[in-house]
Write a structure and sequence with these properties.
The chain is mainly α. It has eleven helices and no strands. It has helices spanning 3-15, 20-42, 44-51, 56-85, 87-91, 94-98, 104-140, 153-180, 185-200, 214-222, 232-253.
């Protein structure tokens, strides 16, 4: 990684500070855990049932990912990627950016890396929020037992890595769409149509060909003991590589970039 790329990435990272996308990542990471915490405090039996399950952390993780994976995460990717990518259109700074002594490839992949790091932030906040969702109720209600259970960190890390990989094709695809249109509402609309289409097709036997359905499909597969019918990891990696390279080609070949 050369100095030019690092400087470009740093500049792109600074641009997104205090943007709505940054607040969206924060809210998205803590939304489901906050809802769970409120439910646990209002309906203590739901939290107590986790204590008696014998798989406290695993069930908590799966419960939190149910809505997140199927609906909220794909929608959040559409909104966050569109917001970050559209910053240059909004501020009318594409031409200014292209006068800097860095290549188009450096600009393209620096922006893409910012999106991926933001996605990683979301995952970190989500896991912290899950932990706090069962710790905070103990502080308010001494009748709750403290969840002092051993956690299978290898399993948790594997599941987080799997969901992260499932998100990559949607990030790259939404990045392509957002770079092609100056009108902010077009990439948002197209992305949401893809998300809804993925939800509708999630039970279709060929749903593995639809990237927007991958997080939901992986949740359904991981909640079953049977082996998956299709290798979503391979499909996801191939789609991400394809969309990233296609997006790069479209970006450098576009006559009017700003």
């Amino acid at each position: 990684m050369n100095i030019g790329f690092i400087n470009c990435f740093t500049a792109e990272w600074l641009k997104k500070r205090r943007s709505f996308a940054s607040w969206l990542v924060l809210a998205g990471g803590f939304f489901i855990p906050l809802v769970n915490m409120i439910i646990f405090m209002v309906y203590p039996k739901q939290l107590l049932s986790l204590h008696t399950s014998g798989q406290f952390w695993k069930l908590l993780f799966q419960h939190s990912w149910q809505i997140m994976a199927i609906m909220l995460l794909p929608m959040g990717i559409v909104l966050a990627v569109s917001l970050i990518t559209q910053l240059e259109f909004k501020n009318n700074t594409w031409k200014q950016l292209h006068t800097t002594p860095v290549s188009f490839g450096t600009v393209y992949f620096a922006k893409l890396l910012v999106l991926l790091v933001m996605l990683l932030q979301l995952f970190i906040l989500f896991n912290i929020g899950n932990y706090l969702s069962v710790i905070i109720p103990v502080l308010f209600n001494r009748h709750f037992p403290f969840p002092n259970y051993p956690a299978d960190f290898a399993w948790l890390l594997k599941e987080n890595a799997a969901y992260f990989l499932m998100c990559l094709p949607m990030v790259a695809l939404q990045y392509i769409i957002s770079l092609q249109f100056k009108n902010f509402m077009i990439p948002i609309g197209v992305g949401l149509v893809l998300v809804v289409g993925g939800l509708i097709a999630i039970s279709w036997k060929y749903a593995f060909t639809i990237p927007s359905a991958y997080t939901g499909l992986y949740f359904l597969q991981s909640s079953k003991s049977a082996p998956p019918a299709h290798n979503l990891f391979l499909w996801s990696a191939c789609y991400f590589l394809l969309f990233s390279l296609l997006g790069y080609w479209l970006y450098i070949s576009k006559k009017e970039k700003g």
